[in-house]
Design a protein that fits this description.
Its EC number is 6.3.1.2. A hairpin with a 5-residue loop joins strand 1 and strand 2. Helices cover about 35% and strands about 20% of the residues. Strands 7, 8, 9, 10, 11, 12, 13, 14, 15 and 16 form a 10-stranded mixed beta sheet that branches. Strands 1, 2, 3, 4, 5 and 6 form a 6-stranded mixed beta sheet that branches. The protein folds into 2 domains: about 5-110, Roll (Ubiquitin-like (UB roll)), CATH 3.10.20.70; about 125-460, 2-Layer Sandwich (Creatine Kinase, Chain A, domain 2). The protein is of the alpha+beta class and about 450 residues long.
């Protein structure tokens, strides 16, 4: 993979590889890349001035009656060689170029509706105070057979917008089966996914099968918050595209089947200052600093509202139930992996705090913005969490679990939205435009959900 350090190097690389068009990618509120293809001849202008762009294309939640510009981040520019079966000569050497963008107003000020811009602002503010975050995550997904199956006629695929890399601003359609994909197609898709990831300047630690049949997970190498969010959205797009190519459907739906485990996207955090991990203290209990405890307490204080973004669908709350391996009670522990926050055993520079509630459907830019901000507010307010759980809680009764916790996570999407609506700190982090968009979109989804007759009701009452 060629690394580019300057815009001049990018322009030279585009010329040498005969790149005719460059994909300009940007995040929508749902956490999918939308993209425009820009002629390579406009690339130099795009880096200096941006590309004029109608904000209404980003969806009704974005439309503010003002034009914005796509401003590419040169640090995200990559030239990705095409796989062998894609080398058809239709675009010079058949290599692809892509760059991730933010949205600005014409005067250069950040557009408030840009999820990446929100996270970048937070990261920059923390950096200016002398700190930085290292973040890691894993992304879970299911691979199902494409095509309608009468045996699954009681299952209605989710109608949330997702955007294929094959079509700049259109969403894929069609039905799929809940049967997991055949082995040959899955192996081809996995090979394609790994090829694309390795050629997209993305570092992963593993790509492995999950606990359930048809479930897979990709574990990312630690990086900055912004880079991890960029990589998650890129890999999501790679997975969808490769799966579709081989007749499969990739799903990030948090709980697609009642009897199977859901899909998670836990985030782990380390807070660094002068290369020293601020969450570590050799003389404190469990070798965790006061900052670590306050970071946990800050998340606990705001976690109900955070769920509206980290678990952003009606279906998300089918995963966060008492009977699931996913967290339900607000607890933390160094031993109990069912706790909302788990602190792995490594200490020193490797000390991490892992939040286990986020799921694979969330927008990582927005989720990380809220989680980091909540944790930092806990440090600033010198908050302290409840005592940690020192054993595996799944062997204990519900009343015992409740007594060890600071409450429970929201039971429904609308409950999480109500908590978000009343949390002025979280709303100030995202700004009015994004916050109102999240609330309005959630209200519409909830109204549609409660008015729909579900198969469980038919089976029980008909």
């Amino acid at each position: 993979m060629v690394q580019f350090n300057t815009i001049a190097e990018i322009l030279e690389g585009v010329s040498e590889n005969d790149i005719l068009f460059v994909k300009f990618q940007f995040s929508d509120l749902d956490g999918f890349f939308r993209e425009l293809e820009i002629p390579a001849s406009f690339l130099e202008t795009a880096f200096s001035k941006g590309i004029l762009f109608d904000s209404s294309i980003g969806g009704p939640s974005w439309s503010v009656g003002a034009d914005v510009v796509l401003k590419p981040d040169p640090r995200t520019f990559t030239i990705v060689p095409a796989s062998d079966d894609e080398t058809d000569g239709s675009r010079g050497s058949s290599s692809l170029a892509r760059v991730i963008c933010e949205l600005n107003y014409l005067d250069g000020q950040p557009f408030e509706g840009c999820p990446r811009g929100v996270l970048k602002k937070i990261v920059r503010k923390i950096f200016q105070s002398g700190y930085s975050f290292t973040v890691s995550t894993s992304l879970s997904f299911y691979l199902f057979e494409a095509g309608y199956n009468a045996a699954d006629s009681d299952f209605n695929p989710p109608s949330r917008s997702s955007f294929s890399s094959h079509s700049s601003l259109s969403s894929p359609s069609g039905s799929f089966s809940l049967r997991t994909g055949n082995a040959a197609a899955v192996e081809k898709a996995k090979k394609e996914i790994l090829f694309s990831i390795s050629n997209s300047d993305i570092d992963i630690l593993s790509f492995h099968k999950g606990h359930e049949n048809g479930q897979y997970a990709i574990v990312f190498k630690d990086g900055s918050a912004l880079r991890i969010a960029d990589n998650v959205l890129t890999v999501k797009q790679i997975i969808r595209t490769a799966s579709e190519k081989y007749g499969l459907h990739a799903s990030f739906m948090p709980k697609p089947m009642t009897s199977k485990e859901g899909l998670s996207m836990p985030f782990s955090f380390s807070l660094l200052k002068n290369e020293i991990n601020e969450f570590y203290h050799p003389d404190k209990e469990m070798m965790l600093s006061d900052s670590a405890r306050s970071f946990i307490a800050g998340i606990f204080k705001h976690v109900g509202g955070i769920c509206a973004v980290s678990n952003p669908t009606v279906n998300s709350y089918k995963r966060l139930v008492k009977q699931s391996e996913a967290p339900h009670y607000i607890t933390w522990s160094t031993t109990d992996r069912h706790s909302l926050i788990h602190v792995p055993s490594s200490r020193g520079r490797s000390t991490k705090i892992e939040l286990r509630s986020p799921d694979s459907s969330c927008n990582p830019y927005l989720a990380l913005s809220l989680i980091i901000s909540a944790g930092i507010s806990g440090i600033n307010e010198h908050l302290l969490p409840n005592q940690p759980v020192g054993f595996e809680t799944h062997d204990y009764s519900e009343s015992e679990k409740k007594s060890l916790s600071q409450g429970t996570l929201p039971g429904t999407f609308i409950e999480a939205i109500d908590k978000f609506r009343s949390d002025t700190i979280l709303k100030s982090v995202l700004g009015d435009l994004i916050s109102n968009g999240i609330i309005q979109k959630a209200a519409a989804e909830w109204d549609e959900y409660v008015g729909c007759v579900h198969q469980w009701e038919v089976n029980r009452y008909l």
